Structure formats: C-alpha cells, structure tokens
Amino acid sequence: LEVRLVATEKARGSMEEVYERLRPVVPGAMERPPAWWDRVLKDRDGGTLRAVVSDGKAAVGYASYRVDASWGYRGPDNRLSISELLAVSPAAHAALWRYVFGVDLVGTVSAYNRPPDDPLEWLVTDRRALRRRINDAVWLRLVDLGAALRARAWTNPVKVVIGITDPWCPWNEGAWALEAGPDGAEVDRGAGNPDLVMSAASLASVYLGGHRLATLAHAGLVRENNPGAVRALDLALAWDRAPWTVAMF
Q1: 198: pLDDT strictly greater than 80
Q2: What pLDDT sits at residue 236?
Q3: Are 222 and 204 in contact (CB under 8 A)?
C-alpha cells in the first residue's frame, strides 16, 4: 500500500470512490450528492491536506486533515486534526493511521467523528494514551414501521410478533408479525398476544444494530411475553459494524 498527499481537486474522485464502497456496509451512512461533496471539500484557507492510500489498482482509503502550528517550551508542539479518515480494508486503515502518526513535529493528533467501533485502540502500543469522548450523533425515528422492517437486512432467522406502542405515530401501534432472515423479511399485522412489547422509540434504538435489545429488556423497556423472544430478535438485529454517520447534517 502507498500513502501519498494529493491535491484536493485530484483527490475528490478517489474519496468519492472510497466513500461509496463503505456506505452500503456501514449502518447509518448516507448518500453524498455532488453539492454535499462540494461542501465537504471546501477549504477556505487552503490548510486542509488530503492523503490517499492505494493498493496499486484503486484508492482504498483517505484522510483529510490539517496541521496547526504551535510552539511549546520544549520546542515544536504542532496539532494534527483529522476531519475524515475512511478505509475499505484493515490494512488501509492501519496505513492511514501510521501515516498521520508519523507526521513530523506533531505533539497531538485528534480525530473528529470516529465510529464507536474504531479498531484504533487495538493498533497502538499504549491504549491508555488514547482519549475518547463519546457524543450522540445518530437519531432514528421509525415513521413507517412496516416498511422499515422490510427494508432492513437481517443476520439470523427470526419469527416473532412484536407489540408496538407509538403515541406520536399511532398508525405504527399494534402487533406486527415479523418473519425475517438473510434472504429478506415478511411483515404483516399480527393478531393475538405478542411475543414481546416495546415502544417505537425502543425499536428505533436497536434498528441499526448499535444497541442490544437484551440491554433494553434489562432496563425494563421491553416486555417479553414468550421466553426466548428477546434473544431471537436480538440475534437477528445484530450487525458486524456499529452505526456511524460519516456525513454530519
């Protein structure tokens, strides 16, 4: 892999390619139309740098960053701030971090808006040297519950009837019969006693796979009527990537 600095106007195509390869596999990632890319790449003072990593055939990652000059009592203490760092493979991810950590005369490296499951802490020698601050960034509202359940990808097979309460969107209220798996989902209005009951807000919290349904059940936000229903739906909702919205809005 090769990491090199590229002028913004030449880096755009590579950045768009990397972003589009990642977007379908990262829950919460959104489309970036050309106007949005114009805004992302706008550099008022010319201080933003673009590093692109390639595998010899195509771009596999990029980092947008700037270096702010600072001088401490022991010498240079510049600060490198990363606005975006995306990679389509573990090797590209490691190469980009190795690159930014290797920029000379830098005392502090900071990165804005990183995914909650960023593997960086497993790449460094001293994990305690990292300082992480967690903020909420992705809020989800299920307006059309049936359509949302049909559109989602499912990790494991599940067949349950979910009771939903939703005072703000009353058309979502009631029992929903869900039969889903890796091949898709069938959703219909259910009947009888649901296997588990929760609010639409609770379902939205686990919809992208970032939180465990079992955790909500332990907090009293999910009522299980049939033993095993929470575990079955929990396993079906699980995903291998944490939700992350790269594009702020």
Answers
A1: yes
A2: 96
A3: no
pTM attached to this predicted model: 0.86
Q: What is the pLDDT of residue 69?
A: 86
Judged by DSSP in three states, 43 sits in coil
Other Cβ atoms within 10 Å of 18 Cβ, number = 22
Q: In whole angstroms, what separates CA 16 from the centre of its chain?
A: 17
**202 contact partners, CB below 8 Å, separation of at least 6:** 216, 221, 222
- Tell the residue number behind the tokens 């499951």, with chain if given: 117
Please say whether the beta carbons of 221 and 198 come within 8 A: yes
Query: Is the distance from CB of 63 to CB of 100 less than 8 angstroms?
Result: yes
With contact defined as beta carbons under 8 Å apart, do 54 and 1 qualify? yes
DSSP state of 213: H
Cα–Cα distance for residue pair 137/139, rounded to 1 Å: 7
Tell me the mean pLDDT in the region 45-53: 92
Count of residues in the chain: 249
At residue 170, the 3 state secondary structure works out as helix
So what's the pLDDT on residue 249?
A: 62
Backbone torsion region of residue 247, taken as left when φ is above 0, otherwise alpha when ψ lies between -120 and 50, otherwise beta: beta
Q: Are strands 71-72 and 75-76 parallel, antiparallel or unpaired?
A: antiparallel
- Region of residue 96 (left: phi > 0; alpha: psi -120 to 50; beta: else): alpha
Give residue-wise pLDDT tens across range 85-109. Answer: 999 999 999 999 999 999 998 989 9
Q: Which residues contact 120 (CB under 8 A, 6 or more apart)?
A: 97, 114, 130
Phi, psi of 203 (to 5 degrees): -65, -40
Residue type, 130: L
pLDDT (0 to 100) of residue 119: 93
